[in-house]
Amino acid sequence: MKKLYRYLSPLLILALLLGSVSVSAAPVATGSGLVTTQAALSAERTDADRERIQEILSRADVQEQLIAQGVDLAEVDARVAALSDEEARQMADQLEQLPAGASAVGALLLVFVILLVTDILGLTNVFPFTR
After folding, report:
1. Which of 41, 57, 80, 88 has the fewest CB neighbours in a 10 Å radius?
2. What is the 3-state secondary structure (H, E, C) of 32-101?
3. What are the residue boundaries of the structural domains of the chain, listed by start?
4. Would you indicate the residue range of the signal peptide (predicted)?
5. Cα torsion 8, 10, 14, 16: sign
6. What is the pTM of this model?
7. What confidence tens digit (pLDDT) does each residue in 50-99 have?
């Protein structure tokens, strides 16, 4: 058994040492030069922004509205493809901030709860089922 430990211990120590060595986050070499981590992340974000824009524009209700306003769908795709990275990021951010109808439902629910609580406390007389 001691013989096994004598051979196995150095191998385990070597495996632990090699496993704990971290690989540095060096730039990736490409054919045209080096790509930094920031550039790679920026490219991923731009791709995600363009995908988000395409996802929204591919919805049936959005396409119906575009057609109703006389916009050619092929032209829309061409314009989205021609957006610069900064324009795509701004457009995706604006699309995220647009109300989607959920805020109206939330506001109505909040008003209902407030009126219900004030009616239960006797401050208002809105709902007859609270008496």
Report:
1. 41
2. CEEECHHHHHHHHHHHHHHHHHHHHHCCHHHHHHHHHCCCCHHHHHHHHHHCCHHHHHHHHHHHHHCCCC
3. 29-98, 100-131
4. 1-25
5. positive
6. 0.43
7. 888 888 878 888 788 778 877 788 887 877 777 778 878 887 777 767 65
